[in-house]
Amino acid sequence: MARPPSIRCSSLVARPSSLALCEPCVKLCFGRPVRKSRPPTVEEPVFYWQDVKYSLRLLAKTPVFTLLTIVVLAGGLGVSIFTFSFLYTAMVKPLPVPGGERIVRVMRADGGGLIDAADFAALRRSIRTLTDVGAYTDREVVVGTAEASRSIQATVTEWNVFAVTRTRPFLGRGLQPADQEAGAEPVVVLSYPIWHAVFGSDTSLVGSHVTLNGVVTRLVGVMPEGYSFPVAADAWVPIRPDLLTARVPEQYYVQVYARLAADADAESARAELSGLLQRVRQARPATTPERALPTGMTVQSFPMAQIGEGGLLALAVLNTLAGLILLLACINVTNLLMARANERARETALRLALGAPRGRLIVQSLWETIILCLAGGLLATVIATWGLSAINTWAHARLEGNLVFWWVWGFDRIVLLSSGAFVTLTIAVLGSIVSMRATNLELNAVLQEGGLRGGGRKEGKVARALVVTQVATVSVLMFFGSMSAIVAYRVANVDLGYDTRNLLSASVELPAERYAGAESRGLFYQQAQERLSANPAVDGVLLRTGLAEMSSAAGQFVLLDRPTTAVDPRTFVLGVLGPLTPLGIRLHEGRFFDTRDTEASDATVIVSASFAARNWLGSSPLGQQLRLTGLGESEPARSVVGVVGDVLLGNPLSRDRSPIAVYIPLRQSSADGANVLFRHRGSLVGAQAAFHQTVTALDPLIIPSNVQSFEEVLAKTSLIARSVAALFAACFAFALLLAVSGTYGLMARAIGRRTREIGIRRALGATDRMILSLLVGQGGRQLGVGAVVALPLTLLIAWGFSSFFPIALVVSLGTALLVSVAITIVVLAATWIPTRRAVALAPRDALWRD
What we know:
Blueprint (H helix, E strand, L loop, with lengths): L9 H5 L8 H8 L18 H13 L1 H30 L10 E6 L6 E2 H7 L6 E15 L4 E9 L3 H4 L6 E2 L14 E4 L1 H8 L9 E4 L2 E8 L12 E4 L2 H4 L8 E8 L5 H18 L13 E5 H6 L3 H33 L1 H9 L4 H41 L14 H27 L3 H7 L6 H37 L10 E7 L8 H16 L4 E11 L9 E2 L12 E6 L9 E4 L13 E5 H7 L9 E3 L9 E8 L16 E5 L7 E8 L3 H15 L6 E5 H43 L2 H9 L4 H37 L4 H32 L2 H6 L2
Parallel strand pairs: 4-9, 6-8, 15-20, 17-19
Antiparallel strand pairs: 1-10, 1-11, 2-10, 3-4, 3-7, 3-10, 5-8, 6-9, 7-8, 12-21, 12-22, 13-15, 13-21, 14-18, 16-19, 17-20, 18-19
């Protein structure tokens, strides 16, 4: 190979440290003379349109790099924009009514939505931090005419429900104070969809009569389309006046809406209400029987109250996960940008040596980053908008009637603002890295070694830090994704603890004005159970109602013959009527409840096998006595008449599930409603018709609600779980793709920069095995550091899942081990493959390789 002619550079001879090249050097490097230009003065503008055009031309010359970078950025940004916008609409966005940000819901401090009507009646007159305060409940009713009718969800509310939202009816009028007075004519206000579906948008019906649960009712108004306050209402009817003037505690419960006063916020309202509630409780006579109820109140927006006490945690966790996916995307793009900077390192160094301002070169490189981020952000906004629209279409098609009215997703101001915020953040992060790379450029190393060491040791540290960050981030994401998959699988295959085949469920609420006493309610329950059991289409009937959860103070009990071995003994308490066989619960000893167990007979109780084993191990519990103190001080001592098999009770997805339970006769409880469980003999329609006929024959004004088979309930739950799991799977699959490609790219570039070093080691006698061991070991150290960084977050995630879901510790540890093995394989493979390629080069080629 011919050696190039020797050229003596006078500039280097005169000033060897200045690197100001002479014109022959420039001609040799670029192939043409370059016109000298004077350095820019301070007065010259910083912004140049030619810099933007130059960046666009460079990106156009490398379409693969440009497209790949935009796609990676769009994926990471799209996930973040979609997640933030979705959660903001679901949990934070003010109600879509005038002054929606001031409308709040008042609840108990323990997160319960229902408030004792007696407490509310006593304290509402003293409230100063809230205005337009009102109470409401909901129930299922049948509305229609002689030609058409439909079962709908009605909100039973005070007259000011429309005033609190500053919304006028579309037709007619709203509710008025006179409508809720005793003896007033029954009236109803319909939602726009129900008016359209049931009455065909007939404007002449407004002011005329329709039937509501068989009662002639005047239709006084129709609300505008899209309005459904307070949550998901199809109609509004006046609340009973006795609910607003209740004096006996723990008899009626209501929900409360309000608007914050002009000089108040949620915290001041909470403090005032909690103080008022404590004074109300203290002012009651000491003889008033009360449970251990919370003495505090809380005030939240309706969206946050709808999600529950875990809303803020879910908001933080899911946005953090989306941010981690964006971080992975930024790491990948950083690797691409640094590789591109290395390719142009020699050109940049020569331009600096010729006197180009370093700031001007940084601005030029920044414009490439800005253009890429803006293009990625635009594509990400389109992707996020499409995802939100798809979610909105799916939810309103599959969950009609169960959606709150403010859950409407699509392109809006929040999508635009979040897109701008995330794009700006990405530009700042990537721009700082690009600027640092240009600022730390080592001219001597670049010009002498052809650009392979343009970043020096600092770039090597940055590359190692990126690998560690990548490993830690993907470890956290994969562990969270795996635990979420476990939860989704259990939701889709939920085990209720009993046989649900051919099992139907319905709810019956008895109006207090017609069933004021325990005897009248008990008689209705008894007749309903007997008549429905006698129908040939039905196989087994059980009425039940939950009276206490094991995790609540209402589940406390004491044994009268011996002290219990448990600390703070609690149990599930259920009121039942009929044999427990429809749930697959078998009698072990004693008897089921029958006609002997009425409100006038001795108090009795049936215990589960687990309850008996815990409290009377080795002896029969029959004839033993206990008192359910959590249900009130007036609760009598009960004698055990039966022991039944275990069945897990509680939320199927909660860790508080337990078979420890007691059952008391429904007729000996104060329940004003019950859940009816019955099994059909092969005809679902026949069993449903039999149930409606039975209830109608007993009381035609009672409309059962939620009449559905367990197959329908479980199918809807499974559908939601599978859909959410698919959404999570898509996000985590994208994260895994970013992690695999990014880790390989980082390791390949780091090892590629050491190709000459590998050649020197081989020339000095190092074997391939030694080089492989060295580089894979270094990759393993980065893997270890990343795993240590991820460990605290992994433990926090494991604790969170085990706290909210019934996931055993061994499952969390096994999942963490599998994730660690998978990440280890990815990192070691990403190190081994480029190392093998570098070792495969001949020593001569490695030494001369650029």
